Structure formats: C-alpha cells, structure tokens
Fold this protein.
Amino acid sequence: GWSRTDSVTAATVVFRANQQAEVDGKTPYGDASVRQALAMAVDNNVCLELGYSSRGIVAENHHVCPIHPAYADIGAPPFDPAAAKEMMDAAGMGDFEHELITIDDDWQRNTGDAIAAQLRDAGIAVKRTILPGSTFWNDWAKYPFSATSWSHRPLDVQILTLAYTTGQAWNESGFENPAFDALVAQANAIADADARREVMAQIEQMMRDEGVIIQPYWRSLYNHHAEGWVGLEKHPAHEFHYYKMAKAA
C-alpha cells in the first residue's frame, strides 16, 4: 500500500580493464585494441535487461549521463562480436583467458555474468571470479579486469576528473593520457554547459576510442513512502529535503 517513486540517475556500474595491471609479467590491457574488442563484444542492452531487470537506461561506454548538463549525444557504441574476436586475435590475445572479477551482490554479479556470457559467445575466453565485499575492496583498484559501482554525481566533469585523469587516487582503469587530461581540464574551466558540451563530445569519443570502460547502463533508483504524504519523491543523490515534506492536503 505504499507509493513508489523512481528517478533516472547517474548511478552506474563500470567494467574496466586496468591498463597498468600485470598478468604473468605482462600488461594485457595496455593495448587499446584489446580493450576495444572487449567493449565491442558486449551489447549494453542485454546487460541492462539481465543485470538490472531493465530498471534504467542504456549507457554508452563514456561515463557521461544524458541527465548531465553538458552531455553530448555521440550515438551508441558499436556492437560487433565477430569484429571483436578478429581484433582480439590480431592483438595476439586470441588464446588469452580473461578473468572478470565482481563483488558478490546481486546486480553487479548478474551484470558480470551477462558480460562474460557475451564475451564467450564472441569466442573470447573468460573466467568469472566473484568475491565477497570484505575481500573485493581490499584490492579494488588493482584488479586487471573488474567492475565497480559508482554513485550519482550531478556534473559531467566530476567523475571524469576523479576516475580517469592521470594520477588520481580513484583511477581504477589505469588510464593515463595527456590529451585526455588536457580536455578534462578545459571542460572543468567552462561554466556554461552548452559551451562545455563541445569539449565533452571530444572527451566521450576519446573514452570510447581508447576502450577505457564497458559501461552498460545508468541505474534508476527507487523510494517507497506511506500514502498521504508529499515531497518524498526519490532524489538521484539519495537526498531527503525535509522542508519539502508534508502531509497531503
């Protein structure tokens, strides 16, 4: 008998190949074509359906949400499993077994399973490892290929700065690109969202061209409240604005 409200948010899950991580003395994800192949083998629509029961909107592999002020629509990322396999083989990684690590919850685990299944369908070998939170968070920024949940941020530049520019503590992808850093710095200096959008389009395209992340969807978040109240609608940042709450007239 409670009322449900929901909000499309910039909360998400990101699957990232760490470009600096070593596996058997090598850095398999230092090659952009390998990262591109992983992303190209995954249909984000399938991940949203199987991983989060279609409760959100499909993302585009660049961590900028349509609700962000300076979001630029550069279209959907390519999905081509056959080309992905060819690209992986050309990079000399055709026989490599990727280990995809996720935390043992519900939606992140299920989304990881959906991605692993699609990679296998493309002919790319994948081992799934699911870790309890007490283990996962000990080395969350060091895993070669894993997933991390990110909470909503209101501005497009916030997570780009925090998670993808060189030297940041939360740069879990190991992405280090001076040209990208310069674009993000430029975007941070532009207050007007319409003007910033031109730079944001370049940033989004570079994220995708470099294969930095597989980002399948943006999560809708939900709230339930008793009947007879107003002002309790779900806020994307989990905020409660008590001055707006009241008994209905």
